[in-house]
Amino acid sequence: NVSITDVLPAGLTYDSDMPSQGSYNTMSGVWSVGTIDSGDTVTLSIDAVVDAGTSDDVITNTISVVNADQTDTNATADDLSESITVENDTDLAVSKTVNDATPNEGETVIFSITIENNGPAQATNVSITDVLPAGLTYDSDMPSQGSYNTMSGVWSVGTIDSGDTVTLTIDAIVDAGTSDDVITNTISVVSADQIDTNATMDDLSESITVENDTDLAVSKTVNDATPNEGETVTFSITIENNGPAQATNV
């Protein structure tokens, strides 16, 4: 009538078990062994999945009860506990793209930021900082998760499970007076509760080169094409900037 009680602790989820004798009750944690002859040995293996969100935790699994009809002298010391320390590493792969690398002044460009958690740990309290540089004016944003602070440039993502991907798009208007400029938008900070192994290389910057083309339409008219001597004629000169760039030093 031998039995032991081994309830899996928080942080572990039961997967399967294999007793060499008797049966294991997954609800109560009781392994009902039965009879063990003198000199014999019986075994039970329990497979458990380490839960998401346990990175850096120490989880201890302890046998709480050992029962039998006989008195256990405990002449041989028992070893009733075993601990695991959950690794705290994850690989956050961050990448950025832009929809138009050669925009005109006044046009809207869309920066797309992707964070993929390649695991193994669940990433918690994830945030990145992406402040728009001079030459770009914020228009709108759309995160698939969390929120983007337009003042600080911080995208507060939250939790990303292993294997999941989150995205943020930022729409920005190219400022007037930036023609021929190269404007680089760079993610400056990536943070999480876990250690980022950077096993996958990040792509944190994207540059645009503002087009320098404009269309100056110049025209001249005169108020009198057939004047007499001594009369005054007026020439009117018009310059129209048909864009797209702002024209400077005309």
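The above is record 1. Record 2 follows with the same two-line structure.
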Amino acid sequence: MTRLMLLDGNGLIYRGYYALIQTPLTTSKGELVNAVFGFTNIVLRAIQDVKPDAVAIAFDLGKPTFRHERFEEYKATRQRMPDELRDQFPKVREVVAALGFPVYEQEGFEADDVIATLVGQAEAAGLETTIVTGDLDMLQLVTDRTRLVVSLRGGVANTVVYDRARIDERWGLRPDQMLDYKALKGDTTDNIPGVPGVGEKTAAKLVATFGGVDALYERIDEVTPEKLRPVLLEAKERVLASRDLQRLVRDVPVELDVEAARMGEYDRDAVVRLFREYEFRTLIDRLPPLAGETAAEAVVRTREAAGEVGDARAPGAAPGT
């Protein structure tokens, strides 16, 4: 079975940036590259772990989407993107282009919607899909053929794999119930309100007990403790709207091209040039093999192409640290 890996571009850039924000990496020329390094590190680790046959990436376009039109306060509490992070996005796109990953993006939609659409197409084609992201928003997409690899805070190597069993283990819920769970709990990251006083445990218990939000409100008289009933009723319209807002769109006008995403067909020389420029010495040996190469052959040939490469480091740190 063909293994497809879909990358949440913006989510991984943010995760890479904030994983290294305490010790921001700069080149010998003083150029900040922590987001680029963090992103590339996460992606190369994911390739090593997942061993995909094909890789594609989705980006947000940085413009308002239909969710902003529907809910004016959507993501309104998020801090403005730091200029030093914004300036690194073009560099990340250079790395993505050199690695040969096809890019999917669509105005009016988020990268999550684009990925949801690609997942549907991949499943219809019989592919096994791994989504690599920096948050849990796409848990609703998990199926027997699709799983989520989430890069956590605290380091680019810190990840959790969510399949159906892992979701059940953590929340006692099915992937399709995660929308109802988040609608009750709310999402402070996206500024989506939940029900006052309903946290993770209560939300999970309510959804597990009643099966979902619709059944919960149909059987509101069965909710315990009783004092929770009027709170839930007062928030009903908000809960239903939140659920709809967080439901990913699966018919974005994009078309998955598996052949264009095949591994082993990237421009190694272009990647090496970028790694030399950004002084990513520690990432050189982790570049994936080209078609027909073994992993050992890839390391030798990449080192030959790279020659001497500097090592981006935290300000004030000695070379090699």
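The chain has a mean pLDDT of 89.
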